[in-house]
């Protein structure tokens, strides 16, 4: 077995610090997910409406968020809001805002895609059966759309969890930053620790994302 | 008709998006190179400046100091989650003499200037090398450390100067570092062997692929101390740069206080004590005089 420098994890409170870092990352991404999934659903439904102005506004918002690298958005909300408006947002608040904006934009586009993928005859048959517009959405369209959405939104959620690794750039000490701190602090005594620590970080991300994938698999099977 | 509506919407979207992105782009550019942006910000937010003056810091009871949290031995976090290192030792003393608590903020090399320009920290003490470009964005106080380049080579053939270089030998260098630029500008005849990372350059020297390795002198000194069989033949090469604390542009009350503090600390040989406490394990005592700047005075 090669020397992975895993003994470094047992020094002081290093393992606990890594777990606290993971909690910071998960807290930010989960708060963002909880807010952006429902708002994404709402906006996604609105985007399928035939209102040109509404569509144009959402389109601009979506493209803006999608074109901007997340890192630029983080800098924009953390530093530029202070510069232009004098708001002193904490790093965590700024990250939550950025992740909510990003999650909502991507989720609404996924919802829009799922909704327009439902064939037209589904709407027409519902109308023929005498269902109201509300009933059509509630009993026919949304149940089918949600099934198509699951793999896509799981992908988005895990992506949001992984992208928290960028927030160290605005001073939030999350799991990856703690890992770098531990590796650097032991640069002289255990030069191989990088392998072991990054392996541990990989496992922590995996443990965080795996249950979400399992839940998705379960739901997909249940709703087949 | 419907088709035209759609085309119109698409054109509108595109132009608006382009406009917005351009705005966004210029905002983020402004953060990097524009001191007047900070002034505009202060006008609209009503408070007088982005930064806090010395009195405001004293009143609040806490000073925010931006440091590295992963640059051992200058600023790092130990296994108990406590900040440690050469910069931290100095930061703690500043807090003590000001009579305030120190709140350490973890910064990265790429965002140190931003932190000062937005007043999110009062001082940056993050191994900040003084350069002319940076001095336009922030105000540097007196220096407290020297940095230069250094050359390490095997004991069997120690290289002590670069003037009579054997053209069959190659010099190891890490791409994108100041060492690479320096070698290209000043010794264009010395063949370079370039590597992307510290680890690969280290392997190259150990395998004998190059005759010597040029890098920051702190790095090569630490390397020679940890690995037997290697000597730093040239401990100080090229122009001497300095490391200094930095404050937001225009924050003169804090800047003057730090400068006075550094001069006063020089009388008690504070930075030598700092070196003994934090750097001696890594660099040994031989380089104390060449690395430490006491009382802000460089030779």
From TrEMBL, chain A:
Keyword Nucleus: no
ABC transmembrane type-1 domain ranges (all copies): 22-216
Pfam family, one: BPD_transp_1
TM helices/strands, residue ranges: 20-48, 60-79, 85-105, 166-183, 195-216
Organism: Roseburia inulinivorans DSM 16841
GO CC terms of this entry: ATP-binding cassette (ABC) transporter complex
Topological relation to the membrane, as annotated: Multi-pass membrane protein
Name of this chain's protein: ABC transporter, permease protein
TrEMBL record, chain B:
Alphabetical list of SMART domains matching this protein: PBPb (SM00062)
A single Gene Ontology CC term: extracellular region
Residue stretches making up the Solute-binding protein family 3/N-terminal domain: 62-281
Superkingdom of the source species: Bacteria
Secretion signal, residue range per the UniProt entry: 1-22
Keyword terms, alphabetized: Signal, Transport
Pfam families linked: SBP_bac_3
GO biological process, any: amino acid transport
InterPro entries linked to this entry: Bact_solute-bind_prot3 (IPR051455), Solute-binding_3/MltF_N (IPR001638)
Family in the record: Belongs to the bacterial solute-binding protein 3 family.
Protein name in UniProt: ABC transporter, substrate-binding protein, family 3
Organism from which the protein derives: Roseburia inulinivorans DSM 16841
């Amino acid at each position: 077995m090669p020397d992975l420098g895993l003994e470094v994890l047992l020094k002081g409170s290093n393992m606990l610090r890594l777990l606290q870092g993971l909690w910071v990352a998960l807290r930010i991404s989960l708060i963002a997910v909880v807010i952006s999934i429902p708002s994404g659903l709402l906006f996604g439904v609105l985007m399928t409406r035939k209102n040109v102005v509404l569509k144009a506004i959402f389109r601009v918002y979506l493209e803006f968020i999608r074109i901007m690298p997340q890192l630029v958005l983080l800098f924009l909300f953390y530093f530029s809001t202070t510069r232009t408006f004098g708001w002193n947002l904490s790093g965590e608040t700024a990250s939550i805002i950025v992740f909510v904006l990003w999650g909502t934009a991507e989720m609404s586009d996924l919802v829009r895609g799922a909704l327009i993928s439902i064939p037209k005859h589904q709407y027409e048959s519902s109308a023929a059966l005498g269902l109201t517009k509300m009933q059509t959405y509630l009993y026919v369209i949304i149940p089918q759309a949600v099934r198509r959405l699951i793999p896509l939104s799981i992908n988005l959620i895990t992506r949001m969890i992984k992208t928290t690794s960028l927030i160290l750039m605005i001073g939030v000490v999350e799991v990856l930053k703690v890992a770098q701190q531990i590796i650097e602090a032991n640069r002289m005594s255990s030069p191989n620790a990088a392998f072991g620590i990054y392996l541990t970080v990989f496992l922590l991300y995996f443990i965080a994302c795996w249950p979400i994938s399992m839940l998705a698999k379960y739901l997909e099977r249940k709703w087949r | 008709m419907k088709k035209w509506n759609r085309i119109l919407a698409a054109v509108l979207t595109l132009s608006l998006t382009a406009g917005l992105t351009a705005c966004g782009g210029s905002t983020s550019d402004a953060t990097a190179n524009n001191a007047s942006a900070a002034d505009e910000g202060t006008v609209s937010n009503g408070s007088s400046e982005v930064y806090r003056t010395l009195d405001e810091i004293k009143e609040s009871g806490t000073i925010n100091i931006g440091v590295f949290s992963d640059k051992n031995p200058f600023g790092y976090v130990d296994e108990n989650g406590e900040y440690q290192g050469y910069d931290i030792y100095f930061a703690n003393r500043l807090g003590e003499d000001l009579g305030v608590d120190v709140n350490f903020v973890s910064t990265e090399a790429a965002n140190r200037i931003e932190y000062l320009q937005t007043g999110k920290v009062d001082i940056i003490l993050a191994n900040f090398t003084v350069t002319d470009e940076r001095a336009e964005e922030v105000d540097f106080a007196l220096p407290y450390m020297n940095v230069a380049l250094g050359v390490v080579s095997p004991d069997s053939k120690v290289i002590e100067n670069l003037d009579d270089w054997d053209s069959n030998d190659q010099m190891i260098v890490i791409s994108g570092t100041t060492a690479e630029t320096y070698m290209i500008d000043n010794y264009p005849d010395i063949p370079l062997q370039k590597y992307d990372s510290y680890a690969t350059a280290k392997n190259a020297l150990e395998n004998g692929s190059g005759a010597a390795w040029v890098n920051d002198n702190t790095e090569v000194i630490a390397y020679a101390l940890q690995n037997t069989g290697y000597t730093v033949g040239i401990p100080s090469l090229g122009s001497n740069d300095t490391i200094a604390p930095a404050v937001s542009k225009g924050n003169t009350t804090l800047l003057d206080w730090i400068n006075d503090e550094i001069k006063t600390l020089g009388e008690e040989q504070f930075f030598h004590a700092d070196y003994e406490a934090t750097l001696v394990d890594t660099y040994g005592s031989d380089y104390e005089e060449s690395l430490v700047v006491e009382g802000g005075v460089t030779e």
